[in-house]
Amino acid sequence: MGGDHLSEVFDLVEVRGLLSGGFAVRGPWVSRRAIEAPLKFFAMVSGRARLTTDGVDEPIELEPGDVAILNNRSWLRVEGGTGDGPRREITPEANFPFSGLIGADRDADDILIGGCIDLSAAGGTLLLQALPPLGHVRASAASAINLRGTLHRLFEEVVGGRAGSAFAIRQYCQLLLLEVLRAYVDQAELPPGWLRLLIDERLRPALSLMHAEPGRAWRLEELAHVAAMSRTSFAERFRTVAGVPPLTYLNRWRMLLAQRALRGSDVRVGELAVELGYASESAFSTAFKREVGESPLRYRYRMRDELPARTGSVPV
């Protein structure tokens, strides 16, 4: 991955993986449900299944260790199992303690766990743009070795009932999401966007400069020089990879930094404007409102009002 830019983005947009349900079943089965969360993930702990969702022409075949990410889908259908008899209709366990998974046999049962990816509004925009409607990360790929291990340890915490398991599950969900994205960028053709930009080796030096000194008035010539490219070649490659010109990306990065500062500190708007390279508080506020849709102070108050509800919610 390009330096540690992915960690920067994870911290900045407050990405959290939250486990919300799962089931273990033997024999023919089918599970249908509506989806409310913008980003959902499903991991096939053991067994095999076929997943279908709206807006996708062909179902995907989930094998042991595979993970599917659903981006702004409204429903899904998952089916699996072998043997005679009618398909059993499965309603996934919702929230803890995942009692339906305790005692599951990984050698004989189909075991599926699911969760949502919770992030700030800014993070939602970034991740939703970076992922396709249905992403499929295959555990069989060489790049997914750590993903398989993380999924195994997560499941052991879910069914183990040990002291501190709730904390461990939250941490492993975070690691699972990170490993999913790591494996995905190695397995798939990424659309233009920040995720593709983070792993572009040619653009990494310029990206590092913008992230290290976001308040500096960077000129295109300086960024092209550090990337060892001509001004024209650099601008064209950046737009192709990121989907936006370099200075547009820099402005959006500044706005993400501003949103984090406004959510988590009492920094004065004028001080923040200077720190991020704006000539005046008015210029910063205008740029912020254009990007975010409201003034910096209104954003701060709204985020602080919404924070208790967000930290306690687990969408499905």
Automatic annotation (TrEMBL):
Keyword S-adenosyl-L-methionine among record annotations: no
Q: Which Pfam families would you find in this protein's record? A: Cupin_6, HTH_18
Alphabetically sorted, this entry's keywords are: DNA-binding, Transcription, Transcription regulation
Domain of life assignment: Bacteria
Please give the InterPro entries that the UniProt record associates with this protein: AraC_lig (IPR032783), AraC_XylS_family_regulators (IPR050204), Homeodomain-like_sf (IPR009057), HTH_AraC (IPR018060), HTH_AraC-typ_CS (IPR018062), Tscrpt_reg_AraC-type_HTH (IPR020449)
Q: Which GO terms describe its molecular function?
A: DNA-binding transcription factor activity; sequence-specific DNA binding
Domain (HTH araC/xylS-type): give its ranges.
Answer: 204-302
Is this entry keyworded Transcription regulation?
Answer: yes
The record, for PROSITE patterns, names: HTH_ARAC_FAMILY_1, HTH_ARAC_FAMILY_2
- Name of the featured protein: DNA-binding protein
Q: Which organism is it from?
A: Lentzea guizhouensis
Lineage runs: Bacteria, Bacillati, Actinomycetota, Actinomycetes, Pseudonocardiales
